Amino acid sequence: MKKSKKSYGFTYIEVIVVMAILSIFFGIASINLLKVQRSSEMNAAISILISDLKEQQTKAMTGFSGTLLVAQDYGIHFNENDYVIFDGSTYSAGSESNFSVELAPSLSFSSVSFPDGNVVFEKGSGEILGYSPGSNEIAITDETNSETVNIQLNFFGVSSTNR
Hints:
The protein has 1 helix and 10 strands, in the order αββββββββββ. It has one helix at residues 12-62, and strands at 64-65, 68-69, 74-78, 82-87, 99-102, 107-112, 118-121, 137-142, 147-153, 159-161. The protein has a 4-stranded antiparallel β-sheet with strand order 5-4-3-7, with helices on one face. It has a 4-stranded antiparallel β-sheet with strand order 6-8-9-10. A two-stranded antiparallel ribbon has the order 1-2.
């Protein structure tokens, strides 16, 4: 009588099934991580923009710019994929004092309802020049998932979002 030989290990089918299950889990995990990354990019862009708006308003109110004390208006000009921080009441594209801030590649300004795409803060008071109710919104859109966040500014430059 022959003794049966016991075999230890996994069959080829069992290995394939386990690899398929693991692939599905890794796929789901990576999709969720991409959502978190996109959300983080949007949150960072909004936080930086609001911070820059407040900084420009503070400069207009105090007249303090770096190490200089200059009483003038300060503003931000919006393009499709970036915005430019500028000194004065009008945006001049060639000015050496301009500072450009680019958005993440998937983000863009879908609408800016301020005159000429500029938010300008008045020297001394910090109020928005040319403000009119109903035209006080900046919309940032994430092209990958069509999510849009609106930033609204009131006459005094106070911001709020729909997020």
